[in-house]
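Example 3.2
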Amino acid sequence: MSTTPNSSKKMPTVTMIGMGYVGAVSSAALAWQGCHVIGVEVNQAKLRMLQCGQSPVFEPGLQELTAQMHAQGALDATDDMCAAVKQSDIIMIAVGTPSNHQGQVNLDAIDRVTDQLAMALHFEIKPRVVMIRSTVPPGTIATRIAPKLKAVCPNVAVCHHPEFLREGSALKDWHQPPMIVWGCDDPADRVAVDEAMHKIYKGIDAPHLPLGSRESELMKYACNIYHAVKIDFANEIGALASAMGADPAAVMNAFCHDTKLNISPAYLKPGFAFGGSCLPKDTRAMMGKAREFGMDIPLISSVLSSNVAQLKRGVDMVLQQGRQRTLMLGLTFKPGTDDLRESPMVELAEQLLGKGIPLSIYDPDLIPEKLIGTNAAYVEEHLPHLGMLLRDDLEAALADAQVVVLTKSIQSLQAKHLRGKIVIDLTGQDKFKVQNAEANLQAKKRAEAA
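Structure, written as tokens:
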């Protein structure tokens, strides 16, 4: 990174509330970007350090950058929030949100700062952007922060702006982020926030991903949880490898070479439960091996129960509609195959029939008379009257249905087919997202009128 800061007369003044790890790193980096940054810190020991040009936290390169920005007058610090806010164009909140032993997030610092900021913004008419950098549960911006601030200052735009700074490489992460995420809910706020983001990240090559506030808040948790899952997964596979005489490093090195399925966006879209002849069987096989060796692999052991829970959510969504004529679009475990073995759609159909749901099924991949071997045996065990349930004409099947359950992609399905239907999309496709919402709303209104 160059030691020469960017400069621009139009760069905003940023107030950073909370000069802990995230606040200190962000402040120095923003000052280098050309912003005038005022750090607000109530801890007097930290404040004295900042006012002397010293970083209150250790991070490679941060001490030197903090001293340089302070010497150039680009980075100041105070404990007077009101004075700092009055000078600011952008206000960032970066206070701690620790969790207790039960996992509940402590938002006391967020609430306290929000109240103080509301008082500081009272009677202010200058438009400002407030960015919450703290990691907070979904709904915090929409229900706890934005209403308080907008009540006293309607011109303020409020957003969540998660940080992705790793200790030990935080400055590098700032200048080379994988993405720049922000989330807000007011359409007018989006314009102001977008403008502010492009100013403070000018020259930084990363995609901007505007979201709603809840999506932004949850996305930060999703990233950290996924990182934790990856570590535990590698450790459990490593433990299995060692127990069975295999080289853990060799196994995972080979695993990582697959960038089509393993290290990729594949399988990372919310949808329905998994199935087929491989995933359930092989997961059970390694759980069985772990038991043989007396090993505890809780992450891998939880996979099948998690899959069952996802199946149950699908069943419950259909049952909530009552005993209406229901059409399932898809029965095989994925498009392009007639494999029904351990298909979650077969289990879904079996449970719905058991609950008395009038059910029909359309699946262009499925020709019952061509099913053979274990595939035929599986469906005979679970859906012995499959032939009576299947429909071979999509439009005729849809015309008779009140509820449509999408379980896999059907190429011939069009938005017009879903008009007037209650649509339950278990695939996670975006294709019919708007149509689904409109159809469900219309169906709900008709049900209420009846």
